[in-house]
Amino acid sequence: MASPPKNRTWPAWLELLRWQKPSGRLILLLPAGWSFWLEQPQPNALLLLLVLFGGLAVSGAGCIANDLWDRKIDAQVARTRSRPLARGALDTNFALSLLLICLAIALAVVLALPNRWLCLCLAVISLPLVLIYPSAKRWFGFPQLLLAFCWGFAVLIPWAAARGSLSGGWPLWGCWGATIFWTFGFDTVYALADRPDDQRLGVRSSALSLGPHVVPVVGFCYAATWLLLLGAGLAAGLGAGFIALALVAAVGFAREWLLLRRDEAMGSLQSGKHFQRQVLLGALLLFALIIGRY
Questions:
Q1: In contact, 246 and 227? CB cutoff 8 Å
Q2: Who is most buried in 39, 235, 279, 283, counting CB within 10 A?
Q3: Cβ neighbours for 67, distance < 8 A, ≥ 6 positions apart
Q4: pTM, two decimal places
Q5: CB 290 within 8 A of CB 37
Q6: CB-neighbour burial class of residue 30 (10 A; exposed 0-12, middle 13-18, buried 19+)
Q7: Residues in Cβ contact with 209 at an 8 Å cutoff, skipping those fewer than 6 apart
Q8: Helices of type H across 204-239
Q9: Residue 99's CB: how many other CB atoms inside 10 A?
Q10: What are 66-96's pLDDT values in tens digits?
Q11: Distance in angstroms (rounded) separating the CA atoms of residues 280 and 223
Q12: Could you tell me if 178 and 37 are in contact, meaning their C-beta atoms sit under 8 angstroms apart?
Protein backbone atom coordinates (compact mmCIF):
# COMPACT_ATOMS: atom_id res chain seq x y z
CA MET A 1 0.00 0.00 0.00
CA ALA A 2 1.26 3.46 -0.82
CA SER A 3 2.08 5.49 2.27
CA PRO A 4 -0.14 8.54 2.81
CA PRO A 5 1.31 11.99 2.40
CA LYS A 6 3.01 13.25 5.57
CA ASN A 7 1.65 16.78 5.41
CA ARG A 8 -2.14 16.94 5.44
CA THR A 9 -4.10 20.17 5.48
CA TRP A 10 -7.31 18.69 6.85
CA PRO A 11 -7.93 16.77 10.10
CA ALA A 12 -8.80 13.12 9.57
CA TRP A 13 -12.35 13.43 10.97
CA LEU A 14 -13.15 16.17 8.46
CA GLU A 15 -11.76 14.02 5.64
CA LEU A 16 -14.06 11.23 6.84
CA LEU A 17 -17.02 13.60 6.31
CA ARG A 18 -15.52 14.66 2.93
CA TRP A 19 -15.96 18.29 3.91
CA GLN A 20 -12.59 19.07 2.35
CA LYS A 21 -14.26 18.29 -1.01
CA PRO A 22 -17.12 20.78 -1.39
CA SER A 23 -18.16 19.46 -4.83
CA GLY A 24 -19.58 16.30 -3.29
CA ARG A 25 -21.63 18.29 -0.80
CA LEU A 26 -22.91 20.80 -3.34
CA ILE A 27 -24.04 18.11 -5.75
CA LEU A 28 -26.43 16.80 -3.07
CA LEU A 29 -27.74 20.24 -2.10
CA LEU A 30 -28.37 21.43 -5.67
CA PRO A 31 -31.44 19.19 -6.26
CA ALA A 32 -32.83 20.49 -2.96
CA GLY A 33 -32.45 24.00 -4.39
CA TRP A 34 -34.19 22.92 -7.60
CA SER A 35 -37.06 21.62 -5.49
CA PHE A 36 -37.39 24.82 -3.46
CA TRP A 37 -37.52 27.19 -6.42
CA LEU A 38 -39.88 24.98 -8.36
CA GLU A 39 -42.23 24.82 -5.37
CA GLN A 40 -42.46 28.58 -4.75
CA PRO A 41 -40.93 31.87 -5.97
CA GLN A 42 -39.34 32.88 -2.64
CA PRO A 43 -38.39 29.98 -0.35
CA ASN A 44 -38.30 30.66 3.37
CA ALA A 45 -34.75 31.57 4.45
CA LEU A 46 -34.93 29.56 7.70
CA LEU A 47 -36.18 26.52 5.81
CA LEU A 48 -33.30 26.83 3.35
CA LEU A 49 -30.84 26.97 6.26
CA LEU A 50 -32.36 23.92 7.93
CA VAL A 51 -32.19 21.89 4.73
CA LEU A 52 -28.57 23.00 4.27
CA PHE A 53 -27.60 21.70 7.73
CA GLY A 54 -29.67 18.56 7.28
CA GLY A 55 -28.14 17.87 3.88
CA LEU A 56 -24.61 18.24 5.25
CA ALA A 57 -25.43 15.90 8.14
CA VAL A 58 -26.99 13.22 5.90
CA SER A 59 -24.18 13.54 3.38
CA GLY A 60 -21.62 13.12 6.16
CA ALA A 61 -23.48 10.08 7.50
CA GLY A 62 -23.49 8.52 4.03
CA CYS A 63 -19.75 9.09 3.60
CA ILE A 64 -18.99 7.53 6.98
CA ALA A 65 -21.23 4.54 6.30
CA ASN A 66 -19.52 4.12 2.93
CA ASP A 67 -16.04 4.17 4.46
CA LEU A 68 -17.02 1.77 7.24
CA TRP A 69 -18.36 -0.75 4.73
CA ASP A 70 -15.43 -0.33 2.36
CA ARG A 71 -12.42 0.32 4.58
CA LYS A 72 -10.71 -2.94 3.51
CA ILE A 73 -11.61 -2.51 -0.16
CA ASP A 74 -10.63 1.17 -0.13
CA ALA A 75 -7.14 0.25 1.03
CA GLN A 76 -6.67 -1.73 -2.22
CA VAL A 77 -8.01 0.92 -4.63
CA ALA A 78 -5.75 3.67 -5.91
CA ARG A 79 -8.36 6.44 -5.68
CA THR A 80 -9.47 5.62 -2.13
CA ARG A 81 -6.49 4.15 -0.30
CA SER A 82 -5.70 7.48 1.39
CA ARG A 83 -9.11 7.76 3.08
CA PRO A 84 -8.85 8.00 6.89
CA LEU A 85 -10.21 4.53 7.76
CA ALA A 86 -8.40 2.85 4.88
CA ARG A 87 -5.04 4.29 5.92
CA GLY A 88 -5.66 3.72 9.64
CA ALA A 89 -5.81 7.39 10.68
CA LEU A 90 -9.11 6.78 12.53
CA ASP A 91 -10.60 3.69 14.14
CA THR A 92 -14.06 2.25 13.57
CA ASN A 93 -15.35 3.23 17.03
CA PHE A 94 -14.66 6.89 16.32
CA ALA A 95 -16.30 6.58 12.91
CA LEU A 96 -19.39 4.93 14.39
CA SER A 97 -19.66 7.69 17.02
CA LEU A 98 -19.41 10.39 14.36
CA LEU A 99 -21.99 8.54 12.27
CA LEU A 100 -24.45 8.60 15.18
CA ILE A 101 -23.80 12.31 15.73
CA CYS A 102 -24.56 13.05 12.06
CA LEU A 103 -27.75 11.00 12.20
CA ALA A 104 -28.81 12.77 15.42
CA ILE A 105 -28.25 16.18 13.79
CA ALA A 106 -30.24 15.09 10.74
CA LEU A 107 -33.09 13.89 12.98
CA ALA A 108 -33.08 17.18 14.90
CA VAL A 109 -33.29 19.10 11.62
CA VAL A 110 -36.20 16.98 10.37
CA LEU A 111 -38.09 17.54 13.63
CA ALA A 112 -37.49 21.29 13.29
CA LEU A 113 -38.94 21.41 9.77
CA PRO A 114 -42.47 22.56 9.04
CA ASN A 115 -44.80 19.62 8.38
CA ARG A 116 -42.39 17.52 10.39
CA TRP A 117 -44.30 14.25 10.40
CA LEU A 118 -44.41 13.91 6.64
CA CYS A 119 -40.75 14.87 6.48
CA LEU A 120 -39.95 12.35 9.22
CA CYS A 121 -41.73 9.59 7.30
CA LEU A 122 -39.69 10.40 4.19
CA ALA A 123 -36.47 10.52 6.21
CA VAL A 124 -37.22 7.13 7.78
CA ILE A 125 -37.86 5.66 4.32
CA SER A 126 -34.58 7.10 3.02
CA LEU A 127 -32.38 5.99 5.93
CA PRO A 128 -32.10 2.29 5.02
CA LEU A 129 -31.16 3.25 1.45
CA VAL A 130 -28.47 5.64 2.72
CA LEU A 131 -27.00 3.01 5.05
CA ILE A 132 -27.12 -0.02 2.73
CA TYR A 133 -25.99 1.77 -0.42
CA PRO A 134 -22.29 1.29 0.41
CA SER A 135 -22.82 -2.49 0.51
CA ALA A 136 -24.64 -2.57 -2.85
CA LYS A 137 -21.46 -2.95 -4.87
CA ARG A 138 -21.15 -6.44 -3.36
CA TRP A 139 -24.54 -7.75 -4.50
CA PHE A 140 -26.04 -5.41 -7.13
CA GLY A 141 -24.74 -4.66 -10.60
CA PHE A 142 -25.99 -1.05 -10.54
CA PRO A 143 -25.21 0.42 -7.10
CA GLN A 144 -25.22 3.89 -8.65
CA LEU A 145 -28.97 3.47 -9.22
CA LEU A 146 -29.48 2.95 -5.50
CA LEU A 147 -27.52 6.13 -4.82
CA ALA A 148 -29.72 7.96 -7.32
CA PHE A 149 -32.83 7.03 -5.36
CA CYS A 150 -31.13 8.21 -2.15
CA TRP A 151 -30.49 11.53 -3.92
CA GLY A 152 -34.16 11.74 -4.87
CA PHE A 153 -35.09 12.39 -1.25
CA ALA A 154 -33.16 15.67 -1.49
CA VAL A 155 -36.06 16.76 -3.73
CA LEU A 156 -38.95 15.17 -1.84
CA ILE A 157 -38.15 16.29 1.71
CA PRO A 158 -37.72 20.04 0.96
CA TRP A 159 -40.91 19.98 -1.10
CA ALA A 160 -42.82 18.24 1.70
CA ALA A 161 -41.46 20.71 4.26
CA ALA A 162 -42.52 23.71 2.19
CA ARG A 163 -45.91 22.47 0.99
CA GLY A 164 -47.00 19.90 3.56
CA SER A 165 -47.67 17.26 0.90
CA LEU A 166 -46.18 15.64 -2.16
CA SER A 167 -48.78 17.19 -4.41
CA GLY A 168 -47.29 19.32 -7.10
CA GLY A 169 -47.62 17.43 -10.33
CA TRP A 170 -44.97 17.79 -12.98
CA PRO A 171 -42.81 20.45 -11.24
CA LEU A 172 -42.19 18.02 -8.36
CA TRP A 173 -41.95 14.73 -10.22
CA GLY A 174 -40.05 16.17 -13.15
CA CYS A 175 -37.49 17.53 -10.70
CA TRP A 176 -37.35 14.17 -8.91
CA GLY A 177 -36.85 12.29 -12.17
CA ALA A 178 -34.17 14.73 -13.32
CA THR A 179 -32.31 14.15 -10.06
CA ILE A 180 -32.47 10.36 -10.47
CA PHE A 181 -31.10 10.45 -14.02
CA TRP A 182 -28.48 13.08 -13.24
CA THR A 183 -27.14 11.22 -10.22
CA PHE A 184 -26.98 7.89 -12.03
CA GLY A 185 -25.17 9.56 -14.94
CA PHE A 186 -22.47 11.45 -13.06
CA ASP A 187 -21.84 8.67 -10.53
CA THR A 188 -21.46 6.13 -13.33
CA VAL A 189 -18.78 8.38 -14.83
CA TYR A 190 -17.15 8.63 -11.40
CA ALA A 191 -17.09 4.81 -11.23
CA LEU A 192 -15.27 4.59 -14.56
CA ALA A 193 -12.02 5.53 -12.87
CA ASP A 194 -12.22 2.48 -10.57
CA ARG A 195 -12.94 -0.15 -13.23
CA PRO A 196 -9.53 -1.90 -13.15
CA ASP A 197 -9.52 -2.12 -9.34
CA ASP A 198 -13.20 -3.10 -9.19
CA GLN A 199 -12.66 -5.92 -11.66
CA ARG A 200 -9.66 -7.18 -9.71
CA LEU A 201 -11.56 -7.11 -6.41
CA GLY A 202 -14.85 -8.47 -7.75
CA VAL A 203 -16.71 -5.24 -6.94
CA ARG A 204 -19.73 -4.29 -9.04
CA SER A 205 -20.65 -0.93 -10.58
CA SER A 206 -22.80 0.44 -13.37
CA ALA A 207 -19.59 1.38 -15.18
CA LEU A 208 -18.72 -2.33 -15.36
CA SER A 209 -22.26 -3.63 -15.89
CA LEU A 210 -22.93 -1.33 -18.84
CA GLY A 211 -19.69 -2.31 -20.56
CA PRO A 212 -19.36 -0.70 -24.01
CA HIS A 213 -22.75 1.01 -23.61
CA VAL A 214 -21.70 3.19 -20.68
CA VAL A 215 -21.09 6.41 -22.67
CA PRO A 216 -24.40 6.27 -24.62
CA VAL A 217 -26.31 5.54 -21.39
CA VAL A 218 -24.68 8.47 -19.61
CA GLY A 219 -25.59 10.68 -22.58
CA PHE A 220 -29.20 9.50 -22.35
CA CYS A 221 -29.22 10.26 -18.60
CA TYR A 222 -27.99 13.80 -19.14
CA ALA A 223 -30.51 14.40 -21.91
CA ALA A 224 -33.31 13.07 -19.69
CA THR A 225 -32.10 15.29 -16.82
CA TRP A 226 -32.30 18.39 -18.95
CA LEU A 227 -35.64 17.56 -20.55
CA LEU A 228 -37.31 16.65 -17.24
CA LEU A 229 -36.08 19.76 -15.46
CA LEU A 230 -37.01 21.94 -18.43
CA GLY A 231 -40.51 20.46 -18.35
CA ALA A 232 -40.72 20.97 -14.60
CA GLY A 233 -39.73 24.63 -14.95
CA LEU A 234 -42.19 25.29 -17.76
CA ALA A 235 -44.97 23.56 -15.82
CA ALA A 236 -44.17 25.80 -12.84
CA GLY A 237 -44.62 28.86 -15.04
CA LEU A 238 -41.00 30.00 -15.14
CA GLY A 239 -40.15 32.71 -17.61
CA ALA A 240 -37.79 33.42 -20.50
CA GLY A 241 -34.74 33.82 -18.26
CA PHE A 242 -35.08 30.19 -17.21
CA ILE A 243 -35.36 28.97 -20.80
CA ALA A 244 -32.33 30.99 -21.94
CA LEU A 245 -30.07 29.68 -19.17
CA ALA A 246 -31.44 26.15 -19.54
CA LEU A 247 -30.36 26.25 -23.20
CA VAL A 248 -26.85 27.24 -22.08
CA ALA A 249 -26.90 24.26 -19.70
CA ALA A 250 -27.98 22.00 -22.59
CA VAL A 251 -24.86 23.05 -24.49
CA GLY A 252 -22.81 22.29 -21.39
CA PHE A 253 -24.27 18.80 -21.05
CA ALA A 254 -23.65 18.10 -24.73
CA ARG A 255 -20.05 19.27 -24.42
CA GLU A 256 -19.46 17.08 -21.36
CA TRP A 257 -20.83 14.05 -23.18
CA LEU A 258 -18.64 14.69 -26.22
CA LEU A 259 -15.58 15.08 -23.98
CA LEU A 260 -16.52 11.88 -22.16
CA ARG A 261 -16.84 9.98 -25.45
CA ARG A 262 -13.49 11.29 -26.67
CA ASP A 263 -11.66 10.62 -23.39
CA GLU A 264 -13.13 7.14 -23.03
CA ALA A 265 -12.05 6.27 -26.56
CA MET A 266 -8.54 7.61 -25.91
CA GLY A 267 -8.24 6.01 -22.47
CA SER A 268 -7.58 9.40 -20.84
CA LEU A 269 -10.69 9.75 -18.70
CA GLN A 270 -10.62 12.40 -15.94
CA SER A 271 -13.72 11.54 -13.97
CA GLY A 272 -12.94 13.95 -11.12
CA LYS A 273 -12.98 16.96 -13.44
CA HIS A 274 -16.14 15.68 -15.12
CA PHE A 275 -17.77 15.47 -11.68
CA GLN A 276 -16.75 19.03 -10.82
CA ARG A 277 -18.17 20.34 -14.09
CA GLN A 278 -21.44 18.56 -13.35
CA VAL A 279 -21.61 20.58 -10.13
CA LEU A 280 -21.26 23.75 -12.20
CA LEU A 281 -23.98 22.64 -14.60
CA GLY A 282 -26.28 21.77 -11.68
CA ALA A 283 -25.60 25.21 -10.20
CA LEU A 284 -26.35 26.83 -13.58
CA LEU A 285 -29.72 25.05 -13.68
CA LEU A 286 -30.47 26.25 -10.14
CA PHE A 287 -29.58 29.80 -11.19
CA ALA A 288 -31.86 29.38 -14.20
CA LEU A 289 -34.75 28.41 -11.91
CA ILE A 290 -34.11 31.42 -9.67
CA ILE A 291 -33.88 33.84 -12.60
CA GLY A 292 -36.99 32.32 -14.12
CA ARG A 293 -38.94 33.24 -11.00
CA TYR A 294 -38.13 36.91 -11.46
A1: no
A2: 39
A3: 16, 74, 83, 84, 85, 86, 95, 134
A4: 0.89
A5: yes
A6: buried
A7: 141, 142
A8: 206-209, 214-235
A9: 21
A10: 888 878 877 887 777 888 888 888 888 999 9
A11: 16
A12: no
